[in-house]
Amino acid sequence: MAQTTPMEQQTGKRLVFEDSIEVQAPLQEVYRRFSDFNRFPDFMSNVEAVRPSGDNRYHWVARIFGIKQEWDAEVTEREQNRRLAWRSVNGVSNQGNVTFHDTPNGNTLVRLRLEYSPPAGKVGEALESITKNTQREVREDLENFRRVVTGQQGVHPRDLEPEAAYHGNLEQVLGSLANVAVWGVVGGTIAHFALERFQPKLNNPQSWLDASKATLLGQKIGVSRTPMMPFTSCQSVQSRWASHVFGMATGASIIASAVLRLMNRKHDALFVGQWAPTFLGFGALARLMGSRGIRTPLLGQKASWAFSSAALGAVLTSAFWHSKGYRRQGLFVGQWAPTLATAAALARIYNPD
User: Which of 140, 163, 256, 304 is the most core-located residue (most Cβ within 10 A)?
Assistant: First the structure.
């Protein structure tokens, strides 16, 4: 498949998108398929319907940023097997053209140019600038058109990923499990040595009382000395801040997931939304760590840190798979994170005494 790199430029309030794709089919067949506007919903994900309304005009129904939009467009050029052009006559302002070219290997090169003014004025322009939604959809719609023409109907690009290398591969599943386990072991080991060395001193109330008495004595004899601040007091302030941060992250995950779903980015919406319970679990864990009324045995603290590290490992492993295009595998690993974060919180409140 030959293609040009998607290009976007802005001319005033009108955005211009250009892209191309090589379709493995004869030119006449490709032109016939693309000139059948009624079938545009077959490969355009956000287009719900295109109906002829007479005088070479068509009524469009689509969703832009999740909001239903309707407009009428007229075909301004129709050159058999060479070129199609259209423009809107009301509603969402847009116009475009598509040209068809023979290739030496008998395929057809399709070149598309789209000019488009986002709805909602400055707000729509800002959303388009941030999300690059239309640029991505132009590429995906062309990819889907190629699949429809070549006999892969019913498969949308957002549902396609490099799963050819992954069909319940035992090695990849065990690798993900091992990766998360290693994170847990490393975190637990670090916590073991750190807590064994520092925690008894920091959490020993008698040590702080002795320091306070020494300070009072020092004041009487004219020597200034600052007592050591209780570890739990400092920890409580830090834990509250951490809890607030994770709380905001929970809300941001939910909102971002909803926005992505409105944009029809289903896989990305699931990927982002799955972190809400994980962030919530980490927020609860931070609160428990700062609570003065909960005394967790050293064994429970070590287990909590091990589970926390494993949860972080699940998050990073999931992000790795998602970035590589294995989105289902990313969701599969990411679903472990909230369970591990909850286990870390439970370890903090479990006291066999």
Answer: 304
